[in-house]
Amino acid sequence: MEKKYVLVVDDDPDIVETVGMMLEKNGYEVGKAYDGIEGEEAIKKRRPDLLVLDVMMPRKNGYVLCAELKKNKATRDIPVILLTAVGEAVPTTSFSHANGMATEAEDYIPKPVDSQTLLKSVESLFA
Prior knowledge:
Layout: E1 5-9, H1 13-25, E2 29-33, H2 36-45, E3 50-54, H3 62-71, E4 80-84, H4 86-89, H5 97-102, E5 107-110, H6 115-126
Parallel strand pairs: 1-2, 1-3, 3-4, 4-5
């Protein structure tokens, strides 16, 4: 069976590496990008089976990228898991949980990311 391809997009290289290693260890092929624009370019080069997407990133945030993907007929069926520290940052940023719910992402996981919670979400979206 062909490995599922998961694209991890986060501006924190440590999170990209940690999430990437956890997914690879569990049999997934992993692509990596470090902001929303890089993520968008990576999706154009190779369509992922699933996207793990940070919310607060430079150049293009995860809410915007997710909303654009969900509006596009060619990409709307790519499952998206949003990762975010927004819960802690809501008082000091323009990001909110309402923005996250409006993006039509399939799941929403708070940072710091619990690897078992993320793995369960990935597996349930592929089930």
